[in-house]
Amino acid sequence: MLVAPTVQPFFPPQRVLMGPGPSDVSPQVLAAQAKPTIGHLDPLFVAMMDELKALIQYAFQTTNSMTLAVSAPGSAGMETCFVNLVESGDKVIVCRNGVFGERMRQNVERIGAIAVLVDTEWGEAVDADALELALKAHPDAKFVAFVHAETSTGALSDAKTLCALAKQYDCLTIVDAVTSLGGVELRVDEWGIDAIYAGSQKCLSCVPGLSPVSFSAAAVEKLKARKRPVQSWFLDQSLVMGYWSGEGKRSYHHTAPVNALYALHESLRLLAEEGLENAWQRHQEQHLVLRQGLENLGLKFVVQEDVRLPQLNTVFIPEGVDDAQVRQRLLQDYNLEIGAGLGAFAGKAWRIGLMGYGARRENVSLCLKALSDVLN
Ligand SMILES: *Cc1c(COP(=O)(O)O)cnc(C)c1O
Fold it and tell me: CA–CA separation, 157 vs 166, rounded Å?
């Protein structure tokens, strides 16, 4: 027998989360998660799932019937899109301008498909002209994949233009909207996005661990026409849809994360109540206040103004400043978390998130005050 460890209940501190995610979760969403667990095939739970699907459709601005939340974080949403649609031997044009574009390449290659890379400098938006050259050079390409909001750099790519180009060359599009959903304009149907995935813990300000996903009719066709079953049993959407498809057809696939789904339902309900366009506007307004304050402190933005994400502000760490020490003091003295640099920007930049419930004036003020104190 192992001796039972003596462990006290865990009481996390009340932090202010202004990094690249998870973002601050509102008290209402946390309260929703603490409601009684019921069976995941209970008729009342099934009715909640129908509402949840309508809320995800609203957030994505899509009428796609294959719209659901994958029971796992954004990375699983990414993998869901790739493993369901891309088959071994398929050619995929992967636009890479940061860490998450590189992960797309890895997904493609693990499937045994061919990744054609369109590289853009870190901190810049994906280059539509470079994509068009690649499309011309590879008429056999079947997909274009890109990250709408690159959280590793803070750059926003023009999803509408990139998707229109892909359509022109008969490619399906796979779009990472983990950080963009709820924070900046995103219109899945209008822009012709075929497969999209997001995350619960960024601008939706929900608890981490869920990934809203949506497939267009063309994507569903591709899935149905597969030569071989999807390699991943868990992520195979043709099986999962049996659970989400409604009208009394629910069947057991895996146990849904019941309480986490209550939280997603509440966070999306709050988003619908606010209105998507109002939420986009709020992120932009708070970003402008933060930007002014950061510039007053002498900090310089990594990303050019016209492609800057309001919800993820990347600034260079000033010369002679100790990155880790500053972040540690912010955490210890102000209960404030900001993000470290990732990949090429590790040790060179900070990533200040203004996501969802966190995109509020009081957070911006706290962040500016704390940074000003610590830097001086
Ligand atoms: C956070 C993030 C992911 C991964 O999401 P997880 O929930 O951490 O798995 C993927 N893409 C982008 C752009 C992200 O910001």
Answer: 14
For residues 350 and 336, give the distance between their C-alpha atoms in angstroms, rounded to a whole number: 13
Q: CA separation (Å) from 353 to 94, 123, 128, 370?
A: 26, 16, 27, 15
Ligand 1 binding site (Cβ under 6 Å of any ligand atom): 21, 73-75, 78, 100, 147, 151, 176, 178-179, 199
Average pLDDT, the chain: 96
Going by alpha carbons, the residue nearest to atom 5 of ligand 1 is 74
Angle at 189 between CA 188 and CA 194, to 5 degrees: 70
Residue 73 alpha carbon, nearest atom of ligand 1: 7
Q: What is the pTM of this model?
A: 0.97
* d(C-alpha 193, C-alpha 173), whole Å: 6
- What distance in angstroms lies between residue 310's CA and the mean position of ligand 1's atoms? 17
The string of pLDDT tens digits covering residues 11-68 is 999 999 999 999 999 999 999 999 999 999 999 999 999 999 999 999 999 999 999 9
Which residues, at least 6 apart from 94, have a Cβ–Cβ distance to it below 8 Å?
Answer: 101, 104, 105, 108, 115, 116, 117, 118, 145, 146
Distance, CA of 92 to CA of 140 (rounded, Å): 9
Position 12: which residue type? P
- Whether the per-residue pLDDT at 92 is higher than 60: the answer is yes
Q: pLDDT-based confidence at 246, cuts 50/70/90?
A: low
pLDDT in tens, 289-326: 999 999 999 999 999 999 999 999 999 999 999 999 99
pLDDT of 20 reads 97
User: Rounded distance, CA 255 to CA 303, Å?
Assistant: 42
Q: How many residues does the chain have?
A: 376
Q: Which of 108, 114, 111 is nearest to 91 (CA)?
A: 114
Q: For the residues of 94-152, what is the DSSP string, one character each?
A: EEESSHHHHHHHHHHHHTT-EEEEEE--TTS---HHHHHHHHHH-TT--EEEEESEETT
pLDDT at 190 over 60: yes
How many CA atoms within 13 Å lie on the side-chain side of 231? 14
- Give the max Cα distance, the chain: 66
